[in-house]
Write a structure and sequence with these properties.
Shape: elongated
């Protein structure tokens, strides 16, 4: 028996789409800017990369504010809470399922419900990515956009260099998160099942 759970309201789907598109643009232009040679060779022309990167960064920043406010004033924020409860035991159950159980067709240890749409691994990953990684990325990015706001030096090291390193490392970690996120979204009943949920708003729960 299949039960359709409406878990992704319109505002979440719009935020998700805009977040994904702007982040992909940031990754592509960021890579191009990072590997631009002294001769000016790059994947995307330097001035175009800078313009796209800055615009995408501004969109991402405002979209993140929209996401945080949305979670505060709507019921969606409850899905990010109580992630510390039985953390180690729950993470192990979920890890074992992904490593072994899923290949044996075992039932999911934490089936999706209307009140809990994330499994323990997802919950802690989303909390770290959205409430730690994204603020670090945005703050360091704003620092690079307005370098006059950065401390001249920290412990005798250039504040600009430290900010750039923080931005690059955070961007790299969040890029890995994006790849893992896309992969785990293929682990539904069909590879397209979970992606459809972000289009129509419904998650198909089987009982």
């Amino acid at each position: 028996m299949t039960i359709k759970l409406y878990l992704y309201p319109v505002w979440v789907r719009l935020w998700h789409l805009l977040n994904a598109l702007s982040f992909i643009l940031l990754v592509l232009t960021g890579i191009s800017l990072h590997f631009t040679t002294p001769e000016g060779n790059s994947l995307i022309r330097f001035d175009i990369s800078v313009a796209i990167h800055n615009v995408a960064a501004i969109i991402l920043t405002f979209n993140y504010g929209y996401y945080v406010i949305g979670n505060i004033i709507s019921k969606n924020g409850k899905h990010y809470k109580n992630w510390r409860k039985n953390l180690v035991a729950n993470l192990w159950k979920q890890f074992r399922f992904y490593a072994v159980g899923i290949f044996k067709k075992e039932p999911h240890p934490f089936p999706v419900t209307k009140d809990n749409k994330f499994n323990p691994l997802q919950k802690i990953a989303y909390v770290l990515a959205m409430y730690l990684g994204m603020p670090l990325l945005i703050i360091s990015g704003l620092g690079l956009l307005f370098p006059e706001t950065i401390a001249y030096s920290v412990f005798n090291v250039s504040g600009l260099v430290l900010t750039a390193m923080l931005h690059i490392i955070t961007g790299f970690v969040l890029s890995l998160f994006l790849l893992i996120h896309i992969y785990t979204c293929t682990l539904g009943e069909k590879p397209s099942t979970l992606f459809k949920g972000m289009i129509n708003g419904y998650h198909d729960s089987h009982e």
